[in-house]
Design brief:
about 900 residues; alpha/beta; Isoleucyl-tRNA Synthetase, domain 2; Isoleucyl-tRNA Synthetase, Domain 1; six-stranded mixed beta sheet; about 35% helix; ligase
C-alpha cells in the first residue's frame, strides 16, 4: 500500500509540547521590566499601590499569592483596558524583628540602627530576586523603602499634622506591652491564641464590717492575672445586683447572689447567710495586704454576672476599664511591674507561669488566697512579631485621638469598593471600635517621634523645627540618635537660652511601624490609588492605618476631609495545607514558592512560573486558600492542556490572512465563534471583578468541552486531508485564528510566559509591530458582535449517535466509526441544513437521507430523525482512512481531487 502521509497537511510548528528553558530569559525580558517601562502610552492611568512586605526572611506562598494577584490585575488593565499601570514595589523596613536579630549586648542606638539598615537592605535584595521569579511586571530598580530618607521626611510631615490639629496626646495609660521586647504595642500588632493559665479567687478583708453572725467580712474577686493584685486600688460592684454573705463559721465572704451555688461547689464549707444591702456595700472599705492601703468599693457599669464573683478586681494601671474607673474616682495609676515585666517583691517575669508558684505562696501566707484554678483556658493576646504573651500596663505613651477623625474616616469609606464586599463591615467595625491609637514604641530602629522635654513636659511647639533639621540628609533620622548632638541642637537657636541644659531631655520613642507603612500613599505624589490588595488581616493593619493617616494629612484647624487613599480594597485569605491547617514553620507544612517553580523538592510537582500563577488564579482567594499535591497536580495538568491546545492551533494555521465573510462559514464554525464570543464576554466580566477563578473555569470548560472534545476532533479530517484552497479548510483556519487570538488575550494576565512564547511563534508581532501582546491595542483581539447560530440540536444528535455507536463497538460490530455509513430517515430541517458537514460531525464515512440501508447493524429513533447504522461496503482510503474508496488500495474521490 502506498504511503500518502507526506501529502497530508499535518500540524507543523516549532512550538514545543514542553517549555524550552533556553527561551525563558528572552520571554521574561519581554514580559516583565521591559514591558512595564514600554507600556502603551495613550491610555488612562491605573494605580495599584503595593502594600510593603516586611524586609525579613525568605518569601512564602502567601507572598506569592499576594504579588501574583496584584500582577494579574495590573496585566488585565494593561491588556484588556488599554491602560498605563503605575506599580512601584515597596518594603517595610523598620520594627522589632530586625532590631532583635542584630542587637548584641552593649550595642548603642547608632550601632543598632546601622546593623538594622544593613540587614534590611540585604533582605530586600534577596526578596526582590525571589519576587522576580513570579513574573511580575514592574521595574525592580524603582522601589520605595520605608527607611528611605525622603520617605521618612514625608512621614514626619504627616506626623506633624497630629500636633497641628490637636490629635497627639501623651498619657500615662494602660497599653498592651511586650515585656520580652520592651515596647508598647497597638491592637493591630496582637494575635489571639488559646492559653491555659492559673486563675485565682482572692479575698480582701473589709475594714470594720461584720455579718449578723459577728464574723469579719471578706470581698471575693476573681482574676486570671494574679500578678496584678499589688496594683489593686478598688473593687467594683454593680449597684443594681443583689449581693449576699456566705459563711464557713469562721469568716464571711460577700458575692453576687447568683454565685452562691458556684462558690458552694468550690468551697462546700461555705453556705448562704444573708443578703447585703447595696448601699452598705458601696460604703465599705477594705485592705490590700500587699500594699497595706485602704481601698474603696465602687459602682461599675462594666460589672456583669458572666464570670467570677460579681465583684471586679480593679487595678487602674493594668486594664482599660479599670483605668477609666481610676480616672473617675481619682485612684492612683501606677504600674506594679517595670519595663522588663518584673515585680518588686518576687523574681521572674509576670507573663510566665514560673512566677505563679511563688505568688501563690505569698498570697496564701497573707490570707489573700481563696481558691486556685490551674487549668483556666481562655483566648489571650500575643505579640504577633515575637509570638510571646503580652500584658497590659500603664506607661507614658503617645496616642492619636481617633475619635476626632472617626466620622470623616467612616464617611470616606462609604465611597470605597470592597472585594469581597464582606471586607467593608470588617474594616468599618475596626475603626468604629477604635478610640485611640498608641503610636509610640520603645525601640531604636524606626522613625523617631521628634519631641524634646523640659522638666518632663514635651515642647511640642518645636516639632516642625526638628522635622526641618531631620529633612537635611546630613542629619536625617540617624541624627536624632547621635549622642554627640546636644539636646539644644534641636531647639531654635533664638530660644536656646531659655532652657537649662540639665532640665532638657530628648525623647527616644520611635513610631509604630503601622504609621510608617500607613503613610506609603505619599509616594503616589497626591494621586489616589485605584486598588489596595493585601491579606484579610490588613483590615486591622495597613488598610486602617492608611486611611487614618490620609484623613490626618488633610486636617486643617481641627477639621478633616472625608478622603481615602484608595478607591477599592481587595483582600485574600491565608494559605492552608490539605488538612486545612494554616501553614507555619513550626508545623513543618510550609511549601516554598521556589520549590513549585523549579521542582527542587521531590515531593512537590514542578509547575514553573506559569503553573504557580495558574494555581493562584484557580484559587478562590476571597477565602483561605488550600494547597496540596492533589491540587497542584490538577493545576499542572491544566497548564499542560493549555500548552497542547496552543500547539494544535499553531500547527494547523497555515495562513493568518484569511478574513472569511460570515455567510461563507458553516453553521458549525459560526456556533464555535458564538461560544468563543460568550467566553470572551464572560471572562471579561469576571476579570473586571478580579474573579480569576471564574476566568480559569470558563476557559477550562470551553477548552475541554467545546474545543478539544468537539471542534478540534471534528475538524481534523478537513484540516489534514483537504487542499489548502478548500473553503471548509479556510473557514476552520479562520476560526482557529480567532480562537488563538482570544485565548492569548484571556490567558496572558494569568500565564504571561506561555502566551508570550505562543505570540513569538505567530506572525502577530510582524502584523502588529509589537513584540508582546500586552502592548497591542485591545481592538486587535476583540471578536466582533456575532449572530447567534443554533447548533445545539445537531450536537445533541451527535451525542445520541455516539451512545449507540459505543454500544455497537462494545458488541464488536466495528472497530472505528469510519467503518460506518449512516442513513437518516425523516431528518429534521436542522440536520438537512448541515448535511455537508454531518459526516464529519458524526465522524463516519458517509451520511445519507431517506435511502435504503444495507448491512445495517443498528438503529436509533430520535426527535430529529431515525438513525440507521450500516457497515460501509467501500474500501479504506489509504490517505484519509474513510471507507469511501471503490477499489482496495486506491484513493477516494475526495483525496484524488485534493492531490490534483
Amino acid at each position: 500500500m502506498k504511503n500518502y502521509s507526506k501529502t497530508l497537511h499535518l500540524p507543523k510548528t516549532a512550538f514545543g509540547a514542553r517549555p524550552n528553558p533556553e527561551l525563558l530569559p528572552r520571554i521574561k525580558s519581554k514580559t516583565t521590566t521591559n514591558l512595564y517601562n514600554n507600556q502603551k502610552k495613550s491610555g488612562s492611568k491605573f494605580i495599584l499601590h503595593d502594600g510593603p512586605p516586611y524586609a525579613n526572611g525568605d518569601l512564602h506562598l502567601g507572598h506569592a499569592l499576594n504579588k501574583i494577584l496584584k500582577d494579574m490585575i495590573n496585566r488585565y488593565h494593561v491588556l484588556h483596558k488599554d491602560q498605563v499601570v503605575e506599580y512601584t514595589p515597596g518594603w517595610d523596613c523598620h520594627g522589632l524583628p530586625i532590631e532583635l536579630k542584630v542587637t548584641e549586648p552593649g550595642n548603642t542606638a547608632p550601632e543598632i540602627r546601622q546593623a538594622s539598615k544593613s540587614l534590611a537592605l540585604t533582605m530586600i535584595e534577596r526578596q526582590k530576586a525571589q519576587f522576580e521569579d513570579y513574573g511580575i511586571m514592574t521595574d525592580w530598580n524603582k522601589i520605595y523603602k520605608t527607611m528611605d530618607h525622603s520617605y521618612e521626611v514625608e512621614q514626619l510631615k504627616i506626623f506633624s499634622k497630629l500636633a497641628e490639629n490637636g490629635l497627639l496626646v501623651r498619657q500615662l495609660k494602660p497599653v498592651w506591652y511586650s515585656v520580652d521586647s520592651n515596647t508598647a504595642l497597638a491592637e493591630a500588632e496582637l494575635e489571639y491564641k488559646n492559653k491555659v493559665t492559673t486563675a485565682i479567687d482572692a479575698k480582701f478583708k473589709v475594714v470594720d464590717s461584720k455579718g449578723s453572725n459577728g464574723l469579719p467580712d471578706y470581698l471575693v474577686i476573681w482574676t486570671s492575672t494574679p500578678w496584678t493584685l499589688k496594683g489593686n486600688k478598688a473593687i467594683c460592684v454593680n449597684e443594681s445586683f443583689q449581693y449576699v454573705r456566705m459563711t464557713d463559721g469562721n469568716d464571711n465572704i460577700i458575692v453576687e447572689e447568683s454565685k452562691v451555688d458556684y462558690f458552694s461547689k468550690k468551697k462546700p464549707e461555705y453556705s448562704f447567710l444573708e443578703p447585703v444591702d447595696s448601699t452598705l456595700l458601696l460604703s465599705m472599705k477594705y485592705t490590700n495586704p500587699l500594699t497595706e492601703e485602704t481601698c474603696p468599693v465602687l459602682h461599675g457599669d462594666h460589672v456583669t454576672k458572666d464570670a467570677g464573683s460579681g465583684l471586679v478586681h480593679t487595678a487602674p494601671a493594668h486594664g482599660l476599664e479599670d483605668y477609666h474607673i481610676g480616672l473617675k474616682h481619682g485612684l492612683e495609676i501606677r504600674s506594679v511591674v517595670n519595663e522588663d515585666g518584673e515585680l518588686d517583691f518576687v523574681s521572674g517575669k509576670v507573663n510566665t507561669e514560673s512566677i505563679v508558684k511563688s505568688l501563690l505562696e505569698i498570697y496564701d501566707n497573707l490570707g489573700l488566697l481563696f481558691h486556685v484554678d490551674k487549668n483556666y483556658k481562655h483566648s489571650y493576646p500575643y505579640d504577633w512579631r515575637s509570638k510571646t504573651p503580652v500584658i497590659q500596663m500603664a506607661t507614658s505613651q503617645w496616642f492619636i485621638n481617633v475619635d476626632k477623625i472617626k466620622k470623616s474616616t467612616l464617611q470616606a469609606l462609604e465611597e470605597v469598593d470592597f472585594v469581597p464586599e464582606s471586607g467593608r463591615n470588617r474594616l468599618v467595625s475596626f475603626i468604629k471600635n477604635r478610640s485611640e491609637w498608641c503610636i509610640s514604641r520603645q525601640r531604636f530602629w524606626g522613625v523617631p517621634i521628634p519631641v524634646v522635654y523640659y522638666n518632663g513636659e514635651p515642647l511640642i511647639k518645636y516639632m516642625n523645627h526638628m522635622i526641618e533639621l531631620i529633612s537635611d540628609p546630613e542629619v536625617g533620622t540617624n541624627g536624632w540618635f547621635d549622642p554627640n548632638r546636644p539636646v539644644k541642637f534641636w531647639i531654635p537657636e533664638s530660644d536656646r537660652a531659655r532652657y537649662d541644659d540639665d532640665k532638657l531631655t530628648k525623647g527616644i520613642d520611635t513610631m509604630d511601624v503601622w504609621f510608617d507603612s500607613g503613610t506609603s500613599w505619599s509616594t503616589l505624589k497626591g494621586q489616589i490609588a485605584d486598588v489596595y490588595l493585601e491579606g484579610s488581616d490588613q483590615h486591622r493593619g495597613w488598610f486602617q492605618s492608611s486611611i487614618l493617616n490620609k484623613v490626618i494629612s488633610e486636617g486643617e484647624n481641627g477639621e478633616f476631609k472625608k478622603i481615602s487613599p484608595y478607591k477599592k480594597i481587595v483582600t485574600h485569605g491565608f494559605i492552608l495545607d490539605k488538612n486545612k491547617d494554616k501553614m507555619s514553620k513550626s508545623l513543618g507544612n510550609v511549601i516554598v514558592p521556589t520549590d513549585l517553580i523549579l521542582g527542587t523538592n521531590k515531593g512537590i510537582p514542578k509547575l514553573g512560573t506559569d503553573g504557580l500563577r495558574l494555581w493562584c488564579a484557580s484559587s478562590d482567594y476571597s477565602k483561605d486558600v488550600a494547597i496540596s499535591n492533589e491540587i497542584l497536580l490538577r493545576v499542572r495538568d491544566n497548564l499542560k492542556k493549555y500548552r497542547l491546545t496552543f500547539k494544535f492551533l499553531l500547527g494547523n494555521i497555515n495562513s493568518y490572512e484569511h478574513d472569511v465573510p460570515w455567510d461563507k462559514l458553516s453553521n458549525f464554525d459560526k456556533y464555535i465563534l458564538n461560544k468563543l464570543k460568550q467566553l470572551e464576554v464572560s471572562t471579561g466580566e469576571n476579570y473586571a471583578k478580579y474573579n480569576f477563578q471564574q476566568v480559569v473555569q470558563h476557559v477550562n470548560n470551553n477548552m475541554n468541552n467545546v474545543l478539544s472534545a468537539v471542534y478540534f476532533d471534528i475538524s481534523k479530517d478537513t484540516l489534514y486531508t483537504e487542499k489548502l484552497s478548500h473553503q471548509g479548510r479556510i473557514n476552520i483556519e479562520y476560526v482557529l485564528t480567532q480562537i488563538l487570538k482570544t485565548y492569548i488575550n484571556i490567558l496572558s494576565p494569568i500565564t504571561p510566559f506561555l502566551t508570550q512564547e505562543v505570540w513569538d511563534h505567530t506572525p502577530f508581532p510582524e502584523l502588529t509591530g509589537e513584540e508582546t501582546p500586552f502592548t497591542v491595542p485591545q481592538e486587535f483581539f476583540r471578536l466582533p458582535e456575532i449572530e447567534e447560530t443554533p447548533f445545539e440540536e445537531v450536537l445533541m444528535f451527535r451525542t445520541q449517535a455516539n451512545g449507540i455507536f459505543e454500544d455497537l463497538r462494545k458488541r464488536k460490530e466495528f472497530t472505528k466509526t469510519l467503518e460506518l455509513v449512516v442513513n437518516i430517515n425523516n431528518p429534521s430541517n436542522r440536520l438537512l441544513e448541515n448535511a455537508d458537514i454531518l459526516a464529519d460531525i458524526l465522524q463516519v464515512s458517509k451520511v445519507s437521507f431517506d435511502e435504503p440501508a444495507a448491512n445495517k447493524i443498528g438503529q436509533l429513533d430520535t426527535d430529529m430523525g431515525s438513525l440507521e447504522i450500516s457497515l460501509s461496503s467501500h474500501h479504506t482510503c489509504p490517505r484519509c482512512w474513510k471507507h469511501t474508496s471503490i477499489e482496495e488500495d486506491t484513493l477516494c474521490g475526495r483525496c484524488e481531487e485534493s492531490l490534483s
